[in-house]
Amino acid sequence: MRLLIIEDEQSLLDHLQVGFKKEGFAVDTSNNGKEGLFFGLETEYDAAIIDIGLPEMDGLEVIKALRKAGRDFPVIVLTARGHWKDKVDGLESGADDYLAKPFVFDELLARVKALLRRSVGMASNTLSLGIYELDTAAKCVSVDGRSVELTSYEYNTLEYLMTHKDKVVSKTELTEHLYEQDYDRDSNVIEVFIRRLRKKLDPEGVRNPIQTQRGLGYRFSSESSS
């Protein structure tokens, strides 16, 4: 999952970037509102964390501009202001949740994960598609009750496909949601991950859960997994 963090306190920004990367997120960061808005308009994110008190452009204005442009990914507002009106202003600007500083990283992580689940229609950490079960909390996958060992990148690729089941996902979209900005997007690494996943999920080659739509991308078929 690809995450945008806009925060002007550099030590906090660095802390959040390291923390979310450890959790398997691809993370883009900015320390000012104008640059952060540019990132948000130019890149498809799964979620964003935006501080209210930003230089160059206020965080609330950033959120309003994103929503006006049709960017509907979940947004959590960070605020050092504890007054209820500031929280209401954040939500009315288009944010989905808020968290007052200081906060514990684990709480922010839990809130981000909850918003991500909600955005793809998941009511819990577990997604079951036929014999395939994805646990987004433990970051593990099982096939017919049997645990399948995946690398972190294989898991992230599969998680994106399963949480967007029956949707054709292009290689470009997968790359943009899984990797950093400086990643070599011309590489064939996605094809390698898809090939590995197919062998691990369907060693007999009979279910074909990850289908290739020629010239378009890949689709995790909920019908094939039943």
Strand order of the largest sheet: 2-1-3-4-5
Strand content: 15-25%
The CATH class of the largest domain is Alpha Beta
The CATH homologous superfamily of the largest domain is called Response regulator
Low-confidence stretches: none
How many domains, as an integer?
Answer: 2
Q: What does this molecule look like?
A:
The protein is of the alpha/beta class. The chain has two domains: 2-119, Rossmann fold, CATH 3.40.50.2300; 126-220, Orthogonal Bundle (Arc Repressor Mutant, subunit A). It contains eight helices and eleven strands. The longest helix is centred in the middle third of the chain and has 15 residues, at 105-119. The protein starts with a strand and ends in a 6-residue tail after the last strand.
Q: What is the compact description of this entry?
A:
This protein is α/β, with parallel strands linked by helices and 226 residues long.
List the main descriptive attributes of the protein structure presented here:
226 residues, alpha/beta, 5-stranded parallel beta sheet, 40% helix, Rossmann fold, 2 domains, Arc Repressor Mutant, subunit A
SSE blueprint:
Layout: E1 2-6, H1 10-22, E2 26-30, H2 33-42, E3 47-51, H3 59-68, E4 75-79, H4 84-92, E5 97-100, H5 105-119, E6 126-129, E7 132-135, E8 140-143, E9 146-148, H6 152-163, H7 171-178, H8 189-201, E10 210-213, E11 217-220
Parallel strand pairs: 1-2, 1-3, 3-4, 4-5
Antiparallel strand pairs: 6-7, 7-8, 8-9, 10-11
